[in-house]
Amino acid sequence: MTTLSINNIYGHGFQEKDLDYFRQVGFQFRLQESTFAGAQRLCFIDFSVCPCLEFIEVTDHQAYREFIPPGMVPYSPGINLGLAEGVKKSIQDFQEEFTAWDPYLLHENYEGDPEEYQPGWNYLNFTHGVVPDTFIWITECEEPYPATHPKTNHPNRVTGVTGLIFDLEEADLTGFSNLTGELFQEGILTSEGVDIYTRDSFPLDERFPNKEFPLVAVILKADTLDYFTRVKPVLRSTTVRGQQAIWIESPQQSWDLIITC
Fold first, then answer.
1. How far apart are CA 9 and CA 91, in angstroms?
2. Fewer CB within 10 Å, N side or C side of the chain?
3. Distance between CA 108 and CA 34 in Å, rounded?
4. How many CB atoms lie within 10 A of CB 215?
5. Per-residue buried b or exposed e for 43-72, using 16+ beta carbons within 10 Å of the residue's own CB
6. What pLDDT, on the 0 to 100 scale, is given for residue 260?
7. Can you list the alpha helix ranges (DSSP code H) found in the chain?
8. Cα separations (Å) of 93 from 99, 114, 196?
9. CA 172 to CA 200: how far, in whole Å?
10. What pTM, to 2 d.p., does this model score?
11. pLDDT at 20
12. What are the pLDDT digits (tens) for 71-81?
């Protein structure tokens, strides 16, 4: 049984012009923007189901570097894992199980401050990285649970995330496998409907993008690619498993988007 599922995937290096471009190609952002410690401006793209995509703009790089917690490589992308529905394990169970990674717990209440006796979010971070140059952490919500974000229907007919591509060997992702309790099969690990690919397992008909970090692309599923064929200037096209796909580039520090049908 899956113990953890992917809640959201974030990347750095975005500016308003990048967000405008995503709007131009048919994505709608969450109406409410957020800010986070380290002078980070957060914008989100939601789908009908998790995970969502989180786009981070750092507005003060000195403040950001002073914020960096243990285990986080500056500006690296990240993946937030949440306890899967029906799982009896607690976040403390993961803390005890993975002591070799030097885990530490953080708490933030729903009012946005660290008062530990008020209900809120519990975060389990790891001082020793689970995946090279990728920040992985676990979130547990306490009752009363926060409101879920509304389902979003995008003009471009993209329905959600189906995969993540790492420019890494399978051995480099052993920590992710151990944490989620899922095993690789022929170079692919599946976590709650999201496939995790190594550099050798994804059927991409061209070279991986030259990115600063190993999480090089997020795969999205669309009902149809018709919207993208009408976008001007013409979007980059590729093929996945012999079928047409759309490739949308992002800043160097973040993952690109590959949209399949």
1. 20
2. N
3. 15
4. 27
5. bbbbbeebbbbbbbbbeeeeebeebeeebb
6. 96
7. 16-24, 61-67, 91-97, 174-180, 226-229
8. 10, 22, 24
9. 12
10. 0.93
11. 97
12. 999 999 999 99
Alpha-carbon distance of 165 to 91, in angstroms, equals: 27
Task: Specify the 3-state DSSP secondary structure of 94.
Answer: helix
Angle at 218 between CA 215 and CA 212, to 5 degrees: 30
Q: What is the SS3 assignment for 176?
A: helix
Predicted local confidence at residue 192, as pLDDT: 87
d(CA 235, CA 225): 11
**Number of alpha carbons in the 13 Å side-chain half-sphere of residue 1:** 8
| Structure-token pair, residue 234 | 């013409």
Q: In the Cβ-directed half-sphere of 20, how many Cα atoms lie within 13 Å?
A: 3
Residue-level pLDDT at 208: 75
